[in-house]
Amino acid sequence: MSNRKDWDTYFMDIAYMASTRSQCSRRHVGAVLVQGKKLLGTAYNGAPMGVPDCTEAGCMLVEEYELKMVEGKEEVVRKQRCIRTIHAEQNLLLFTDREDREGSTVYVTDQPCWTCANMLANSGIVEIVFHRAYPKDSDKVIGLMASRGIIFRQMAAYEPPPGVLTEVVN
C-alpha cells in the first residue's frame, strides 16, 4: 500500500501552503489553479502589492446587511468583512490567463464568498474544490454554481498539513 497522496489532497495541501503567505489577521486563504494534473498558478489573500496590509495598517472593516428567508420569515443578517485585502480567488484570476482557466479546477482553502463565486463562475473554470465552509454566503454560492453547471465540492474530511491551519475570525 502506498503512502502517496491522492490528487485532491496534494493540490489542497499546496493551497494551504500558499495561504501561509497571507498577512490577513482574520483569515488566511490560499487558492490553486489546476488543469488536469498540471499546476498553473497559486495565490493568497492580501493587500495590493506595495500597500500596507492589515498587520501594518489594521483591518478596514465594513458592515453589510442582507435580507434572508429563514423558515419562511425574512430576517436581516449582518455581515462584517475587511475590504483592505484582495481575496485569494481574485488574485488567482488576476495572475492567470483566461486560456489556462478554460476547463480548469480551482482548489481553495475556504468556500468562496459571493463576490469571488461570481468571478469564478465567469472565469472558464469547471470545478471548485474547497475545505472550510463559509456559511455567510453558502446557499447563494451553491445555487450559483449549480445554475452554471460548475462542480462544487467540499473536502470535509481533509486534514491540512501540520502548522498551516490558522484560526478563522468571522
UniProtKB/TrEMBL annotation:
Pfam families linked to this entry: dCMP_cyt_deam_1
Positions with a binding annotation for Zn(2+): H87, C113, C116
Cited InterPro entries: APOBEC/CMP_deaminase_Zn-bd, CMP_dCMP_dom, Cytidine_deaminase-like, dCMP_deaminase, dCMP_deaminase-rel, Deoxycytidylate_deaminase_dom
Example of a GO MF term: zinc ion binding
Highest taxon, organism lineage: Bacteria
CMP/dCMP-type deaminase domain span: 6-168
GO biological process: pyrimidine nucleotide metabolic process
Active site (catalytic residues): E89
Family: Belongs to the cytidine and deoxycytidylate deaminase family.
Protein name according to UniProt: CMP deaminase
Organism: Paenibacillus athensensis
